[in-house]
User: What shape does this take?
Amino acid sequence: MIPHICALLPTTTPALRHYYVIDLGQVHAAWRRRPVESVSSEFVAGYEAAVVSIRPCACECLTRPLDPMDFRYLLAACAALCDQSGLGRFLFTLDSLSDEFPDLAGYV
Assistant: This one.
């Protein structure tokens, strides 16, 4: 399903495109964290090629005016899609880190 969504991403309305990128970034971060070993190599190759193909489109979304929360999630998604999974996970979960870093909640 991901390759099909990726193929249609450039045709999505620019005002809504970042929402798809955020979802795809979360999927990719989860895939990188726990890849499914039982899928065929053809599936993996198609999936990886689809992710690589949307990187420019995803990063282009960063130039749009967004509210701070959407921008952070988009930045997290772009990081994940560009194989910076650790940074992507960190940015996606920043809200839940306030127990470990109490001053972070006010900063976010």
